[in-house]
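Homework-ish question, so no full write-ups if that breaks the rules, but can someone show me the predicted structure for this set?
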Amino acid sequence: MTQEEEEIVLLDYWPSPFGTMARIALVEKGVNYIHKFEDLSNKSPLLLEMNPVHHKIPVLVHKGKSICESNIIIQYIDEIWKNNFPLLPSEPYQRAKARFLVDFINKKVHGSSVKVWMGQKEEQENGKKELLEWSKFLEEELGDKLYFGGDVFGFVDIVLVPFYNWFIVFKTFANFNTIEIECPKLVMWGEKCLKRDSVCKSLPTSDQVYQAYLEFKKGWSHG
Amino acid sequence: MTQEEEEIVLLDYWPSPFGTMARIALVEKGVNYIHKFEDLSNKSPLLLEMNPVHHKIPVLVHKGKSICESNIIIQYIDEIWKNNFPLLPSEPYQRAKARFLVDFINKKVHGSSVKVWMGQKEEQENGKKELLEWSKFLEEELGDKLYFGGDVFGFVDIVLVPFYNWFIVFKTFANFNTIEIECPKLVMWGEKCLKRDSVCKSLPTSDQVYQAYLEFKKGWSHG
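A: Not a homework solution, just the prediction itself:
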């Protein structure tokens, strides 16, 4: 195997929640990788070649082959480095449930968060209402467990924590503070995750996320 | 375990491509199940209870617990009845690739097909153009293999064949016939799949699909 084939490369964009998920999974598994950050307004030929369908980050390049879509990347990482800390549960029903929640977070929580980021007054308010509803659902799913999968940090936690980080920004930026009153278990879970080594190393700070948003916004107003 | 907990129930709607996928997977595994068809204009309390988030079919109820979302159901079926005919490849990269193609089909092929079904003139033409583009991509992915996973029928084939069935309807209904000229390997694959026992038993005929569409349309014009 050539050196190039052995290399593990993550094509990424640092404020992206989806990129963050892949980073956390790699750190949890103790995998060393080369981090290549993309300029999304001027995507690299490597990104276009490695994700010819969607042209999106994150892309994991392993043994010269590309794996795209964050939830597929996490499952791949779990299956390749299967002897380290497992990310998905082993029992089929629990695996199905984790996949369902991941899909829910990527669709619903992400979709409503985008409304809060981008929406004008009424749309932003709708986004906040939806986020509260999804948070209540997730609070119930979490119940009295330490993490979504039980006693150990895993797939669902990895996917939700970058959005929890957004919620913190939404507190100052969009006056989104109902979650603290209505979903105390979810907030406890989030604060615990934020202290975890793999999360600290991978997650942009709330300030960095907000700065990236302002940069984006400037781009639009000029675009 | 009570009799109710042992039962395997599929909540379904017979013209649905997503319901069809779950049916094919169950037949491939030789699993006996109780088929409950839903009236989507008047959803059953069981469906609302078993899929409280999306209220959508298909839902697999097994040991009293529900599994939702067709691609998650197929993976669950593969993991529970793992000693029968495997549906997903065993090698992690091939598994990631299968998951990527399934996601692509469910998003892109389904999305463009809906434009052909529902769209007015220009939108329908756009849907047909997109479908041809996706079909060319899939033709290339298939290459000279018998099935998407190689020599055996599996996950990607199960998810694509209900849409291939739609393509046949689109030939008469929307003059969509370029695929036969441009994607001969995909057509050969599709015709081979249509003769497969699990597919024959699960797939509505093209005529039934078109009739269901006309019923739908009548509903809208009254709605």
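Now go work out the reasoning yourself. Hint: Chain A has two domains: 3-80, 92-222.
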